[in-house]
Amino acid sequence: MRQLRRCQVSVDLKLAGEVALEEARRIFLTDIWDPPTSYRHGEAERWRDAITEMIKSDLGLGWSWEDRYAGDGDYEWCGAFVSRCWSRGGVKLSERKTYFSSCFRLRAWASYKQANEVVKNPKPAEGPWRMIVALNEKSGDVQFPDGTGPRAGDILLVGGVNTGPGKHVTLVEKFDERKREFLTYEGNARGVGPDGKKRQGVVRARRPLGLPLGAEETTYHARWLIRPAPSDLAVEKD
User: Fold this and answer.
1) Which of 52, 130, 159, 189 shows the greatest Cβ crowding within 10 Å of its Cβ?
2) pLDDT digits (tens, 9 = 90+) for 49-89
3) Which residues of the chain have pLDDT under 50?
4) pTM for the structure as a whole
């Protein structure tokens, strides 16, 4: 599997996103369900171990102080899944640990704002910088400030109407222009597993751009699209 390594030349950001997406696909194919806390089947222990790694290990959020994942919504681990994917893509652990656990923190990170009083989040003197695009129920076509559209590995925050920074963190596989939908890989979500059946766990899903006609205001749709900067990726991988 491809990884990014520390180097003196500028990082290929498009490649970094593709590497993050590769990791999402790899995890997806390992077939991870989100087991009920009461479910003690042997396979459920493997699922709990995998989710716990996303939360506690330096390959994910690095929140080592958290308890082992018990299952069934014990911890909202959608951001931990995306952190695990972008650890392979090269985002620094210090950034993932501070900002990748929630939509609120990720939006602050992408906007070069602080999420707490301790960790600074300065904007580099020179770009390219992180990109963040505001989306809502009326959104049309998506264009980043650099003229590109959505691409593999972008971070998509979704939520219902008036949910501010969003309610759920996802990783973009691609954007379906005809259906105006993002195809995503997600953790702690309802969607389709590798067997093609619906489940709760690590899944593939579709998230609309804008609120579809007749949909409830609580329908999760695209709220913010985020792309790391090359300066976020200057880390050495094992």
Assistant:
1) 189
2) 999 999 999 999 999 999 999 998 899 999 999 999 999 99
3) 5-10, 235-238
4) 0.93
Neighbours of 103 (CB within 10 A): 23
Q: What's the pLDDT score for residue 143?
A: 83
Q: In the structure encoding, which two tokens stand for residue 150, read together?
A: 């959505």
Tell me which amino acid residue 65 is.
W
Please state, in angstroms and rounded to a whole number, the distance separating the CA atoms of residues 96 and 100: 5
* Per-residue model confidence (pLDDT) at position 10: 47
Looking up tokens 């171990």, which residue turns up? 49
